[in-house]
Amino acid sequence: MKIKELIISEIKKNKKIDVSKFIEFCLYGDDGYYIKNDVIGGKNDFITSPEISQMFGEMLAAFLINYWNKNIKTEFNLIELGPGTGTLIVDILRTATKNKKFLNSINLTLIEKNKNLIIKQKNNLRNINFYSVNWTKEIDIKKNNRPSIIYSNEFFDCFPIRQFYKKNKWYEKYIKYNETQKIFNFISEEVDNIKMLNKLEKFNDVVVAEISEARKKYFELVCKHIKKNSGVCITIDYGYKEPPKYFSLQTIYNHNKTHLFENLGNQDITAHVNFDELMSIAYKYELKIDLFCNQKDFLNGCGLKERKEELQKNKNEKTFQKIELDYERLTNKSQMGEIFKVLVISCL
C-alpha cells in the first residue's frame, strides 16, 4: 500500500492523525523517504557538511583522536548514527591514518536502515581498505563493555515532531483528509492532557512548540549507552537552546522548499533540534556537558582555519576560491556556522 493510501487509512480509523504520525509514514514507512531513497548530495535533495568539504571530517577526526588520546587509550567502539553515503567516516579514517594506535583500536559500527546507502558506505570504505565494519539498525547497549565514541551529523533533525501553538490556551495541529476535494488539511484541537500541558509550560514565552517523543527516546538510548560503557557522544545538528518563536518544520525536494502535503515519501522533512532538551536528558543520566557551541566555533577550535590555509597553498585561483567558499559555507553566520550546534556529552 502506498504512503498516501496508508495515511488516509489511518485517518479514517481515528478521524485525524497528529503531525508526527504523518511524518513517520512519509519518512520511515515501508515506502518512506529515508528507507528507499539515496537522498544526499548535490544532485539529490540536500547536501551535508561532509559532502561540502573534506575539512569537516578532518576537524571532527582531530577532535575524536584528541579525546581518545586523553581519555580512552584502549580498544573502543566508534559508532556513527546515520552515516549517509559514508563520506564522513571515510574522512575520519583517512585522517586517523596519522595515528595508528587510534586507528587500530577502532571497533566500527554504522547505524543505518537504508539499504542503498549501506551499499554506498561499503564501496566508499572499500576504497580506503577498511573492511572491519558492523552495520546495524539500532544501538545495542548490551553488546560489550568497551568505551564508546558515538557521533552524528544531521541525524536528530529527522525525527517526527508534534506541533502546538498557544492562543490563551494550547492547541495541537492535526491532519485530516477531505474526501470530496481529495486533499489533506490541518485542523487544531485544544490540548487537555495534563502531562502534555506541563511539558508545554517551558514554551509559554514563545507560544509555539515542536515536541519529538521519538527523538527524546533515541537520545535517552544514546545516554544509556554512554552511561553503561563510558565514553563520549558528539551531536552536530541545526537547532536551538532557547525555543524560537516560529515553527521550524520544513520540507525539501530537489534543494527547494515545498509543502508538507506534497511529494509524499519523496521529500525530506526536518525540524530544528531542541538542544536544551538533549542536555536535560544527559543530566538525567548524570553525564557531563563537555561542550555546547555553534559549528563555526567548534570547527575553528579544532583548527579549521589553519587547515583551510594549508590546503590553499600553491593552488590555482579556482581551487583556492573553492576552498574559501567551502570554508565560508561551513562557518558563515548566514549559512551553517551559527544555526548548526555541537553538543558533546561524556561519562568517564
In short:
With 348 residues, this protein is of the alpha/beta class. Helices cover 41% and strands 26% of the residues.
Describe the 3D structure.
With about 350 residues, the protein is of the alpha/beta class. It folds into two domains: about 5-30 and about 160-210, no CATH class; about 35-160 and about 210-305 and about 340-345, Vaccinia Virus protein VP39 (Rossmann fold, 3-Layer(aba) Sandwich), CATH 3.40.50. It is about 40% helix and about 25% strand. It is built from 14 helices and 16 strands. It has helices at about 5-15, 20-30, 35, 50, 55-70, 85-95, 100-105, 115-125, 195-200, 215-230, 275-285, 295-300, 305-310, 315-330, and strands at about 15-20, 75-80, 105-110, 135, 150-155, 160-165, 170-180, 185-190, 210, 230-240, 250-255, 255-260, 270, 275, 290-295, 340-345. Strands 2, 3, 4, 5, 10, 14, 15 and 16 form an eight-stranded mixed β-sheet that branches. Strands 1, 6, 7, 8 and 9 form a five-stranded antiparallel β-sheet that branches. It has a three-stranded antiparallel β-sheet with strand order 12-11-13. Strand 6 and strand 7 (about 170-180) form a beta hairpin. Helix 13 packs antiparallel against helix 14. The longest helix has 18 residues, at about 55-70. The chain is globular, with a radius of gyration of 21 Å. The termini are far apart. The relative contact order is 0.15. The model has no long low-confidence stretch (mean pLDDT about 90).
